[in-house]
Task: inverse folding
C-alpha cells in the first residue's frame, strides 16, 4: 500500500485489518486527489488500545518534565513545518492559507504551553491539624484516553487534546476526522520525531460512524475527549456515563454579536464579516447571528451587506481568496437547504444565497457569503447551527432585549458585544450565558492559555486548552496523600 496514509500503532506505521481505503479530495477542486487513507475496522481499534494500555505502564512513570521536553521539541518541529502543513490543510479541508497557518500556530502554542506544564502540574501541600503529619494533593494520569477530533481545525484541535493528555502521563488512541486524516498523520509524525516512545500515541483512521462509538466506549479506555456535533456528543457522553468513563465534549454553537447604538460600526462590521465568513462559517465559534440595536440597524445592514458582497470565493491557496469552499457536497446541500428555509420563513435575503459553480469555483463546494435581514428570533436560521457562510441579522430594542435574544438558544459557546460604554460591556459580560464573551472583538480568537468551551448544549465536562479549569483537569485526577510520622495512632477530628 505504498503512498497510502496508514495507521500508527505501537510505534509503527501499519496497514489495516480490513484492507480497505478511502480517498481525500480537495473541496476547492474535486479533481485533485490529496491522498488515499486506510480505513480501520474494530480489530484495528483493539490493537491500538492494547498498545496504549501496554505503554501506559512505563509512560505514567516517565518524569513529567521529560514528557514536557518532548512536547517542546514537537513545537519546534511544527514551527519548521508550518508553511508545508498550512498548504496541506488548505488542500485537504479548504480554508484560506492565512487561516491554516493560524491553525498550525495554535498547535505550536499549545505544544510550548503544555511543555511548560511538565514542570508545574502542581497540587497543594498544606498544614495538617495534627502534629507530625503532612498533607498534599497531586495530579495523576487517567490511563488510556480516546481522542476524537473534527475536520475544521485539523492540527489545532488534535493538539489541544494530545498535548495536555501526554504531559499528564496518559497514553492515547487518536481518531481524526476522515476528511483531514493526512494532516493529522503529519502531526503524529512530528510527535514521533520529537521522541515520543512507542505505544504512547496511536492513530486510527476511519469514518466516525464506523469506529467512533466503538473507540469511545471501548472497555480498554478510561476517558474520552470529543469535539463535534451536539447530537453525537450527547450520545457519546450518555454512553460514557453508563460505562463509568470520564468524558469531555466540545460541541456546537449558535453564536451572536451584539452591536449597540454607540458602537464603532466600521469595527463591528469588520468583526461580523470575520466571525460570519471566516473558515467559510465552519467554526463552532462562527458568528451566525448579529443582534443590532434598532437605531443603527439599517446603517449596519448596509455596511455589512456591501462588505459581504466584496468577499472573493476561490481556492484557499490563492492569496486573493477571502472565502474557501465548504468541506463536502453533503455540507453544501445542508447549507443551501437552510438558505431555502430562511427564505420560506420570511427572512429577507440581502446577498448570496446560492452555490457558485463557475470560474475558480467550478469544481468545488462553494457557497456565496449570505446575509439575511428581518430575521425573527424564533426562525430556524436564528436557532439552529448551519455551519456555513450564512449570517442572520436581528433587531433589538435595547441592551436588555439584545442579551435576551442572544441567550434564547440551546447553545452557549461564544458571544460578543460592540459598545463604547463600559457600563454596557460590564452588564453584557455578566449576563451573557456563554462560556466565552468578547468585548469589541469578534467571536473568533480564543487564546490557548485560557479554558475554551461553552455552556448548555455547547459543552459537556471539562474545558479544552490551558489555564485553571482547562484540559489538565480533563486529563488528570486528584490524589490526596496524608503522611503520619508521629509513630502513634492519631485520630483526626477526635478530641
Result:
Amino acid at each position: 500500500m505504498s503512498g497510502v496514509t496508514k495507521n500508527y500503532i505501537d510505534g509503527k506505521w501499519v496497514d489495516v485489518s480490513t484492507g480497505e481505503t478511502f480517498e481525500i479530495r480537495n473541496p476547492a477542486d474535486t479533481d485533485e486527489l490529496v491522498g488515499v487513507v486506510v480505513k480501520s475496522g474494530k480489530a484495528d481499534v483493539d490493537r491500538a488500545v492494547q498498545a496504549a494500555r501496554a505503554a501506559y505502564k512505563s509512560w505514567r512513570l516517565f518524569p513529567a518534565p521529560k514528557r514536557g521536553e518532548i512536547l517542546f521539541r514537537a513545537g519546534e518541529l511544527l514551527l519548521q513545518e508550518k508553511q508545508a502543513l498550512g498548504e496541506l490543510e488548505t488542500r485537504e479541508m479548504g480554508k484560506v492559507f492565512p487561516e491554516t497557518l493560524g491553525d498550525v500556530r495554535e498547535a505550536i502554542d499549545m505544544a510550548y504551553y503544555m511543555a511548560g506544564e511538565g514542570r508545574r502540574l502542581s497540587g497543594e501541600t498544606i498544614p495538617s491539624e495534627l502534629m507530625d503529619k503532612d498533607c498534599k494533593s497531586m495530579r495523576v494520569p487517567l490511563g488510556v484516553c480516546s481522542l476524537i477530533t473534527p475536520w475544521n481545525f485539523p492540527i489545532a484541535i488534535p493538539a489541544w487534546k494530545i498535548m495536555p493528555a501526554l504531559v499528564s502521563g496518559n497514553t492515547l488512541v487518536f481518531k481524526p476526522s476522515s476528511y483531514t486524516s493526512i494532516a493529522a498523520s503529519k502531526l503524529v509524525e512530528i510527535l514521533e520525531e520529537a521522541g515520543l516512545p512507542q505505544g504512547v500515541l496511536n492513530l486510527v483512521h476511519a469514518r466516525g460512524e464506523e469506529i467512533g462509538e466503538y473507540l469511545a466506549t471501548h472497555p480498554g479506555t478510561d476517558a474520552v475527549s470529543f469535539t463535534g456535533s451536539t447530537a453525537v456528543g450527547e450520545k457519546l457522553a450518555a454512553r460514557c456515563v453508563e460505562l463509568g468513563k470520564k468524558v469531555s465534549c466540545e460541541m456546537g454553537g449558535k453564536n451572536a454579536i451584539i452591536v449597540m447604538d454607540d458602537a464603532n460600526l466600521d469595527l463591528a462590521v469588520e468583526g461580523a464579516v470575520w466571525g460570519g465568513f471566516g473558515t467559510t462559517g465552519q467554526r463552532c465559534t462562527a458568528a451566525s447571528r448579529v443582534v443590532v440595536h434598532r437605531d443603527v440597524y439599517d446603517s449596519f445592514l448596509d455596511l455589512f451587506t456591501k462588505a459581504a458582497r466584496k468577499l472573493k470565493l476561490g481556492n484557499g491557496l490563492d492569496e486573493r481568496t477571502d472565502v474557501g469552499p465548504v468541506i463536502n457536497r453533503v455540507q453544501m446541500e445542508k447549507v443551501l437547504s437552510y438558505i431555502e428555509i430562511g427564505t420560506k420563513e420570511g427572512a429577507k435575503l440581502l446577498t448570496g444565497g446560492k452555490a457558485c459553480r463557475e470560474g475558480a469555483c467550478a469544481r468545488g463546494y462553494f457557497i456565496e457569503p449570505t446575509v439575511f435581514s428581518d430575521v425573527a428570533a424564533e426562525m430556524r436560521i436564528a436557532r439552529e447551527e448551519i455551519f456555513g457562510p450564512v449570517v442572520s441579522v436581528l433587531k433589538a430594542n435595547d441592551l436588555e432585549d439584545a442579551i435576551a435574544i442572544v441567550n434564547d438558544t440551546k447553545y452557549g459557546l461564544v458571544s460578543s458585544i460592540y459598545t463604547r460604554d463600559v457600563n454596557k460591556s460590564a452588564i453584557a459580560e455578566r449576563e451573557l450565558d456563554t462560556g466565552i464573551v468578547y468585548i469589541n472583538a469578534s467571536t473568533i480568537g480564543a487564546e490557548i492559555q485560557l479554558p475554551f468551551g461553552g455552556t448548555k448544549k455547547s459543552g459537556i465536562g471539562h474545558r479544552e486548552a490551558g489555564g485553571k479549569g482547562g484540559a489538565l483537569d480533563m486529563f488528570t485526577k486528584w490524589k490526596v496523600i496524608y503522611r503520619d510520622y508521629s509513630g502513634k495512632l492519631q485520630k483526626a477530628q477526635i478530641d
